[in-house]
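Need residues for this backbone.
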C-alpha cells in the first residue's frame, strides 16, 4: 500500500526559504562591513580568518534554510520524509561546505591583492 502524506510540508518549504533568504541578507551586510573596514585595518596585523569568524552564524543559517527547503521540496514531490532528508542533507551540506571554502579563499585573495583583482571586466 502506498503512503501519501495528507499535507505536504509547504509551511516548512516557506520557512526554509525565508531562513536562507534572511541569513543571506545578514551575510551580505556583514561581508560589506568587513570589506569596508579593510582600508583602516591595513596598519594593524589582522588575519583573514578573523573575518570568517564573523560570517559563521549567518552562513549556518543559510545552510539550515537550504537544507530545510530542499528536503521539504523533495517531500512535496512524493519522496518519503527519511529519503528526502537523506538526500537533502548531504547535498546541501556538501554544497555549502564548498561555497564556504571558496568564500574563504576569495576573501584571502581580495585582501592580499585588493578588490580590483576580482574585477573581471577591466583590462588593465
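Answer:
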Amino acid at each position: 500500500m502506498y503512503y501519501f502524506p495528507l499535507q505536504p510540508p509547504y509551511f516548512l518549504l516557506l520557512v526554509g526559504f525565508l531562513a536562507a533568504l534572511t541569513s543571506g541578507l545578514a551575510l551580505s551586510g556583514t561581508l560589506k562591513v568587513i570589506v569596508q573596514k579593510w582600508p583602516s585595518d591595513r596598519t594593524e596585523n589582522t588575519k583573514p580568518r578573523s573575518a570568517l569568524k564573523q560570517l559563521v552564524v549567518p552562513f549556518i543559517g543559510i545552510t539550515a534554510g537550504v537544507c530545510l527547503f530542499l528536503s521539504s521540496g523533495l517531500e512535496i514531490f512524493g519522496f518519503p520524509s527519511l529519503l528526502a532528508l537523506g538526500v537533502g542533507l548531504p547535498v546541501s551540506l556538501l554544497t555549502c561546505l564548498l561555497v564556504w571554502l571558496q568564500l574563504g579563499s576569495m576573501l584571502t585573495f581580495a585582501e592580499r591583492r585588493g578588490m580590483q583583482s576580482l574585477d573581471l571586466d577591466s583590462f588593465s
